[in-house]
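User: Second chain of the day. Same drill as before.
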Amino acid sequence: MHGDVVAMVTLPPVHRLYSSDAADAADDEAWMRHALALASRAEAEGEVPVGAVLVGADGRVLADGWNRNIAEHDPSAHAEVVAMRAAGRTLGNHRLLGTTLYVTLEPCPMCAMTMIHARIRRVVFGAADPKTGAAGSVFDVLGDRRHNHRVAVAGGVLAGEAGARLRDYFRRRRAAPRS
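Assistant: Same format as last time:
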């Protein structure tokens, strides 16, 4: 998911791909700003700037994460997975019922399936990923009716800011001299 993203697709603001409670929309931008701050932390640590925050049904942060693939030598250490693992430890449960996951980039298929297995209620993402997006851009893993659980999706929250951050990161990376 977090490899070279050549072009970011900007969805209309808060594009509802699937059903979502109208009351949820009020907090989406604030939580996405939190996820963007985590993306900055990832970038400062030499990772692709993607951040995620998992919020419980009570509206409190259960866990957050940012890309850790490079630092942990772990191809599965995407921001979403890092946050879900931490939340599972916090709750003492692999099921993350009633939670909402905010992430700055549309989830990849691996992260989307992890959300389904964890029974995440809702995912809100910033920028769409035209290469590996699994929340409707390329694949529709989260909404596939063959799964026994579907995750509600809201995309495009602060998409301009999230997409610009990723574009700038990859532009700088491509311009840097290779060793």
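Confidence is low (pLDDT under 50) at residues 1-19.

User: Great, on to the next one.
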